[in-house]
Records
---
Amino acid sequence: MWSWVAALLAGLLSAHLAQRRCFPYFWRDALFLTRVLRYGARLEFYKRSARVVTVVDRFVQQAQRIPDKPFLICDGQTLSYGALEQRSNRVARVFQRAVKSGDTVALLMSNEPDFIALWLGFCKLGCSVAFLNTNIRSRSLRHCFSCCGARLLLVGADLLEAVEDILPSLQEDGIGVWSLMRESSRPGVHSLLDKIEQASPEPVPAERRSVRCLRTPTLYIFTSGTTGLPKAAVITHLQALKAAGGFWAYGATGSDVIYTPLPLYHSAASLVGIGGTIELGATCVLKKKFSASQFWHDCRKHNVTIFQYIGELCRYLCNQPTAENEKDHRVRMGVGNGLRQDVWRGFLRRFGDIRMCEIYGSTEGNLCFMNHIGKIGAVGRSNFFYKLIFKYDLVKYDLIGDEPVRDRSGFCQHVQRGETGLLLSKICSQSPFFGYAGSKQLTEKKILRDVFVKGDAYFNTGDLMAEDEDDFICFRDRVGDTFRWKGENVATTEVTEILGLVDFIQEASVYGVQVPGNEGRAGMAAVIVRPECTFDGKKLFNHVLKELPSYARPLFIRLQESLEMTSTFKQQKFALVESGFDPRSISDPLFFLDFSEKSYLPLTSSVYDSIVSGQRKV
C-alpha cells in the first residue's frame, strides 16, 4: 500500500515539475480565463434574452445598494453613489421632453463630476452620447456633429470659447447649445446649472432607458484616422460592458480606490475607468488634468490602490526629481497601455512593486489583449483556449507598399512565430465590428476581405505585432497614416491639410519620427516651398499654434524640392520615416519648433544632440 502511495506522490510531483517546466503559466492562465469566461457568460445571457443590464442599469443598482459610499472624488468634491444618482436624475428631468429615445447629444467637457452626471442622465433617457475631444476646434469640431447626428451640445463653462466660431452654424442647423453655467450672456446659449438645481431628483421611468439588444449604440467616441478628420467610433452596450469588466478581470474589488488622470473623452477613462468603477462598486478619484508633480501626493491623500495610465504618463513620473517618500503609497496596480520596456523597469525600481497590467485594444476594434502575467514589454497574453474564442492572425506586411503581402492566390500569408506581422481580428458574431457613424466608406476601409478564404472578413488594427514562443504578444509599430504622440493618435492627412493653408507651402507630407527617450513618434513634415516664396518660420509657427492641438503640431520640418510617390500616386513616407531628423545624415534644410523664439528655427547638430540627450524637451 505504501508503495502505491509513494508512487502516486512521485507521479504527482513529476507532473507538477513537468507542468512548471513546460507550461509555467498554466494555472495563472486558467484562473484568468475562468474570470473572463464568467463575465462573458453574463453577456451571452444578455444576448439570448430580452433582459440587458447596461452600465447605467448597473450604476442604478449600485446606487441602491451602497448609496452613501463615495463614488467620485474630484477637485476636493466627493459625490456618493446616491448623490450622483440624484444629480443624473435631475439632468434627465431637465431634458425629458427635449429629447426622445434614440437621439444623440454631444458633450464637450473637461474632467469634472457633471461630465458623468450628464452622461448617465441622458442614457437614462435612452439617448446616445458623443464624447468630443476637448482639443479639436473649428472645422474638425463641426464635422463631429454631422457624422454622429447630435442635436444637442453640452459645453463645459471653461470650453465655451472653443465653440465660439461655430456657434452660428450650429444654430442654423437647429443644434441647441447648453453651457454648464447658472446664467448665459451669449445669444443662443442656454444656461444649465440653474435648471439642474431646480429639477426634481426623482428618477424618470426605467422604460426610457430599457435596452433589448446589446448591439444598440450608447456612445460615440472620436478617434483620429487616415481620413483627415475625427471618426465617430460606434460604441454599443456590448462594448461598454466588455470594457467595464477590465478591472474585475485583473482582480480588482469594490474596496479599491481608482485614480483616473486621463481625459474622459477617451475610452480608457470613460469605458474602462468609470465603467469599471461602477461594475466593482469602487471609488474613483478623477483628476481634471494629469500632473506629474501631484500624482503621488494625490495617491497618498486618497489611499489610491489602482491607477490608470498611458506610457507617456509613466515616463513623466520617472522624469520627476527623486523624492524620499516615492514608495510611500498604497498603489498595488496600474492598468493601461503603451508602457515601454525601459520605462516599465525604471518605474518599478523607483516606485515599488506595482503590478502593471497592460491592455491592448482600439476604441472601435473587436479584439482585446490583456497582459495578466505582467511580463515586461508584452501588451497581451494568448494561449490555446484564448485562440479558440478570439480569432486573430498576424500576417506579412509590406512597409514600402503599405499593404499586406498576398500570395499568388490573393490570400494573406501568416508570419512565423516571433516574426512581426500586421494584426488582424476576424469579424464574426462573437467578435463583431460596429464601425464608424456617418460613413460606410470609413467602416469598409478598416475591413480586409478574402484574407485566407473567399468571403472572410477581418478588422485591420493597423498595428504591427509579434507573438513569441511563450504566447506573449508585443507591439512593434503602427502602419498607415496615423502615428501616436503624447498619448494621442495624430491623423497625418488632417495635419497635411492644415499645413497646405499656409501661403508659401506648395505640398507637404506628414509622418512620425522616433525621438529617443519619448513614447510614440513626434510629428515631422517634409515640405515643398512654392517657387516664388521663401520659408517663413514665424508664420508657420503662428499657423500651427492656432489651428492644431499641441500633440499634432509638427516638431520638425524638412524642406524638399520634390516628394517621393508610389505608383498609385500616394505619398511615399517609408524613407522619410527611416531617415528621421538627424542633420548629419540629411542634406535637406531642417527646422524645429522653438517656443522660446515662437518660430521654426534651423535644426543644427548641437540642437539635435540636445534633443536626443533629453536636455531640450519636446
---
Amino acid sequence: MTPVARSPQQRRLDGEAQRHAIDCLLNCYLREYALPRGEACLDCQAQDLPMTLRHAEGRCVDIRLADGSRLALLADRTSALGRCRFVSAPYFKGLGQGWRPLDATELARLLLAPLNGPERHGELLEQIDNSLRVTRTFLHHARAANQEPAGSREPTDSHEPMDSLLLSEQGQVWGHALHPTPKSRDGVSEADLLACSPEVGAQFPLHWFRVDPTLVRHQGDDPRGLLARIAGADDLYPCHPWEVSRVLADPLVRRVRDLGLLEYLGPQGLALYPTSSVRTLYHPELSHFLKFSIHVRLTNCVRKNAWYELDSAVALTRLLDPLMRELDERQPGFALMPEPAASTLDLSAHGSAEEAREVTECFGILYRQNLDAASRARHRPRVAMALFTWNLDGGSACQPLIAQCAARLGVAPAEAARRWLRAYAELLLGGSLHCLFRHGVVLEPHLQNTLLGFDAQGLPCRVWIRDLEGTKLVPEHWPAERLAHLDERTRTSLHYDADKAWKRVAYCTLVNNLGEAVFHLAGGDAALEQCLWREIAELLEAQRAPLGDPPALRELCAGAPLPSKENFMTRLLRKADREAGYTALPNPLTAACRGDCR
C-alpha cells in the first residue's frame, strides 16, 4: 500500500511532537542519571562536536554514555537545576563512528540500554511511543480547532475570556516536562482520545445506569441531588465513557443486570469538560468537580479510585476542616479544595468480596468543591501547569501575563517577574510549610494540583491546592489513635514518615512547581534566574522562626540539596508512585544569596 503523503504542516507538527518527546527524555535522564554522576556538561566547548551544533547559537550539551559513546545537542536555555530546552536533534557518536542524528525512539532505546532491568524496557518503550503518538494527535487537532493554550490569550479591559479556569485546564498539550511519558494513555483508541481529552477542548455526556437505590453507597455529603441535575433524572448513576466497556463486561455487573437491579441507559445529560487530570470533570455551573475511575495508565499510574481512596479523601476533608479554617486566618490567600463526598455501587450481596471491590472501584466517584462563580470572575484562576509550559508557538505561556503585569505596574518586565514570583512563592511556601511543620499535613502542591488567582495588577493573590488523594499525614502529629475511626487500610494509606513527607513537599513546591516557574519566568536570563531564586531563599529563611526552625528547613537554607522525584526510574522499575525515589539536586538557594539582583 502506498503511504499517504503528509502535508508540510503535518510534518512540522510531527517534528514538534518529536522534539518535545526528546526534551522530556533527556531532561529526565540528565536530572536523574547523568548530572548526578558527572556524565554531562551543559556548556561543552569541545572541538569535535557535530558541525551543525558548532555554528549555531546556544549551549551545546554533551552527555557521556557508559560504553564511552556520546550524545550532543543544542539548548537555547539551561537552568541552575540542570533543566534545559533543546532546540536541535540529539546527535550520537558511537565508538569509532561519526555523529548521526537520532529520533525519539532511537534515543529512548539508547538511554535505557545501560540501565538495570532490561526485561522492563519493553513496557516503558511502548509507553514512550504511545505518549509520542498521543502528543502528535493532540497537536494536529488542537491546531485544527485553533485551540489556544492557557496563557497565550490574555484578558484585557475590553475582552475577558469566559472561563480562565477551563482554558487553563484544557490548554496543556505538553504535560509534565520532567516525565518520560507525559501523554501516555494506554489502550485508548484515537476516537476515544478525541472525544474525552482536555487537550482538544472535549466535552461529553456521562454514561448512565438506572440503579436500585439499595446498591448506591455514599460517604460524606449526599451527592444524589448533583447527579440528578447532571442526568436530568433521579436514581441514575454515572460512569466515565472510558470505563463503561469494562463495567458492561464485568461478570458481577452482568448478574445484577439480569436481576433487574441495574439497567444501562447509555450517554445522556449535561456535557462536562475534562480537566488536566483527564478523569476529573468540570462544569462552571456545578458546585463540584467529579473525579471518576478510569482503568487507564496516565503517566505513572492507573487512574482508578481505589476503595480506600474514596474513604481517605472524605475522611481528610473532615479531619482537616479545622486546619482549613485556620488557614483563612494564618495564611490568607492559601486554601485547600475540600472533597466532601464520595459515592460508588456496592454489589457485595451478589458476588464475592473481590468481585464487588472491582465494581466498587470502577464506579467510584470523588466530589471536589468547585470555586464559586464570584471567585472565578474576580481572581481569574488558572492551573499552574498551564502557565509554566510552552504555548503552541514555542514561547513560555506565562510571559504574556508578565508583560501585562509589567504594563499595569509601570515597571520593566524583569522587575515584574521578580514581584510576580515573590507574590506566588510567598503564598505557596507559606501555606504548604505551615501545613507540614505545624500540623503534619503533607500536601502535594505540584503544578497540576495548584490553582492561582490574580489581583487587579495581575499579581498572584490566591493559591488553591487540590487533590486530597495525594495528601498524607505524619504519624507524629497523627498517631493511630487519632485515626481510630478509619479502616486500617485507609489509615495505612494516609501515613507518611517525616523524611518522606519533607521530600515530597520540598520536591513539589521547590522543584516541580517553583523550579519550573523560575525556568519560564527567567527566560534564559541567568541574572534574572539568580534573582528569582534569591527571592525564594529569603522567603524560606523568613519562615524558619515562625515554624519553630525545623531541622529540614534549616538545613535547606544552609545549602542541603533539593530532593527531585525520579519519574524516569519509577516508571522504568514499575514502582508505585508512593515508592518513588529522589535524586539530590544542587541547591540554587545559597548560590543565589551570594549575588545581588537588586
---
Amino acid sequence: MDMDYILDDVAWRGLLEGVAECFDELTIIRGFQYFKQGRVEELVLRDDGVHVDARVKDNRMYDVAVDLDDLTASECACSKSSCTHMAATLMRYAELCGRPIQALANARSALKSAAVSAKPGAAPDGRRFGARADVEGGAAAGSTSWAGNESEGANRGAVPEASRPVRPTLTEAELTELPVAKWHDRFQARCGPMHLHFRTAQEASELLSDLQAMRPVLPWALEQLFTLHTLLFVLERMIKPAQADTRQSGLFMGYHTKLAMEGLRGHARSLLEDKLALADDSSAYWDRLMETADFLRESMLTEDKTLGCFAELYASLWLRWLGPGSAGTAPLYEKELRKLQVAEAELGPALSRLPWTLAQCLLLLYLARDAEALTLIARDGSKLMLKPEHLNPQLGFLEHAEQWVRLRDWLAVTGPLLVGVRSEDLTLYGDYWASVVAQLPEAESEMWRTLQAMLPFSRTVYEDALAAHGRWDRWIDLQMCMGQDPLSFRVTVLKPVEKDAPELLLPFYHQAVERYVLQKNRDGYKAAAKLLKRLAKLYARLKKGERWEQFIIAFASRNSRLRALQEELRKGGLLS
C-alpha cells in the first residue's frame, strides 16, 4: 500500500455506499474490466485528499476527475455521469489504498443484502452495509444471513429460520466442477420465476447485481467465465420471450428492450475482448470454456436472424478466447466444424443459416481452407442477405494477420454478394480494399473491377476510391451520369479537381448550367448565374478567355427572352 493513499474504515464504507448508489451493475462490471486491463493511467490524489484525477484509455484517452465526498459531482471527458471510466478510476484508487477491489465490484449486491438484513427478523446486531463482514470478504456480501435470536424473531412475528427459503449460491469448487448448464439452473433458482416482460436496463442491472452476489472471490479465469454467463443468462431471459412472440422480432423490439439488449451485448463483447486467463486444455476450467462454446453455438443457431446477438458473441469467443493467438488449436477448429455440420441435419428448417455459414467460414479460415469457405458463402449468395458487418470477423482476422493476398480474394468474392446494402454502409468494406491496395498495388485493377460490378450499391465507396487515387476523369464521368449538382459539393471536395485537372470540370459545370435554366424559375436562374461565375474563373485559369467570351455572348443571346435570367446575369456581373 502506498502511504500517500490511505483510506480509513469510515471513508471506505462511504465509498462503497456511494458506488452502490451512483453506478449500475453493467457500468461496475465494465469498469472492473477496464481496471483489470490496466487502462487507468496517471492517477493522482489531490492535496485536499478528496479529489482524484486520472486518465483512462478507451477508444481515446479520457480525463477523469472523481470527487470522493460526492461521486455525483465527478466529471469525465466522455460527458456521461457515473460512467465506466469513473468506475475504473475508483477501483484503481481502492487498489492503491490497499482495499479489496472485489468488495467495490460487488458494492451493489452488498447494499442489497444489507437492506434485507435491516428488515424485521434480520441479524439482531443491526449490521449495516458498511460492516467489514459484509463487504470485505466478498462471499459474505453475496449471501443473506438469517442468524438471530429465535425467540426475539417469534415475538416480532418473523418467520423462524428453519422455514425461510435459502437463496442459492455457488462456491469456487462448485463452479469448477458443475457444468455451465447447472450454473444457469442455479441462476434461475436464485431469481425465481421470471416475468415475461423483463425488458428494461434497470431490471437487467438489478438481476446482474443479484447474480454477482452468488459467488465468492474467484480466480480471474473463473471470474471471466462466471461474469460472461451472468450476462448470457440475462440476455437469454430478455431475448427468448421476444422470439416466442410471433408479433416481434429484432426489428420491432421495444425501444427500452433494445437499449438494454445492446448494453448487455456490449459488456459481454468487451469482456470477451479481454485476454483469457487460460493457456490450454490442461486448465481446470477448460471444460467450462468448451461448454460456453456449446451454449453460444446452440443459442446462435436458433436465434432470430434479425437479432444476431448470440451470433456476434459466438464470433467474439472464437476470435478472442479461442482464436489462433489464444487457446485455439487446429484439432479444436476441426471438432467445432463437425458440430456445426451435424447441427444442420438436427435443426432442419429451424437452423439460422446466416450465422451457421459465417461460423464455418471463420473456422475454415483458421485452417487455411479459404476455397471451401468462399464456396460455402457463395453457394447461397444473396439469399443470406449479407452485410459488411457480418464479414468483419473474417476480413478483420486476415487484415490483422497481414494476409493481403487472401484478403484480396475474400473481398473480390464477397463484394458482389453484398446486394441491397446502402452505399454508406459499405465504408468498412471500402476500407479493407484501401488496406489491400496500399500493401499490394497490383490489386488495384481487381478493386476497380469489383467495385464497378457492385454499382449502384458501391457508389459512395467507388467515388471515395476514385478520389483517393486521383482518377478524376472517372469521378467526373460518374457525377455527370448520375446528374449530380456541382453546387451540392463542398468547395473542399472539388478543390483537388480544380488543382489537378481543371479542364475536367468544364463539361460538368456546363451540363449543370443548362439543367438550371430548364427549371424556368428564379432559383434555377440564380444557381445558373452562380455556376457561370465559377466557369468564368475556370476559363481564366486555363487561359481560355476568348472562348469564355464567345460562350457567354452566345448563351445570353440564346436565352434573351428569359428576362429573369438576364437580370441574374447582370447582377452577377456576367453581362454589361
